[in-house]
Amino acid sequence: MTTTPADRSARQHTLRLGLRANLAQFTLLVVVNALVGGMLGQERTVLPLLADDVFHLSAYTSALTYIVAFGATKAVTNFFAGTFSDRYGRKPVLVAGWLVALPVPAMLAWGPSWGWIVAANVLLGINQGLTWSTTVIMKIDLVGPERRGLAMGFNEAAGYVAVAVTAVATGAVADHFGLRPEPFLLGAAYALLALGLSTLAVRETRGHARLEAAGHSGSRNPSHHGELSTGQIARRVSLGDRALSTASWAGLVNNLNDALAWGIFPLLFAAHGLGVARIGVLAALYPAVWGAGQMLTGWWSDHIGRKHLITAGMLLQAVAIAAVAIGTTFTVWAAAQVVLGIGTALVYPTLLAAIGDVAHPIWRARAVGVYRLWRDGGFAVGALLAGGLADAYGLTTAIWAVAALTALSGLVVAVRMYETHPRSASPAHAGAG
Question: Which parts of the sequence belong to the Major facilitator superfamily (MFS) profile domain (predicted)?
Answer without folding.
Answer: 22-421
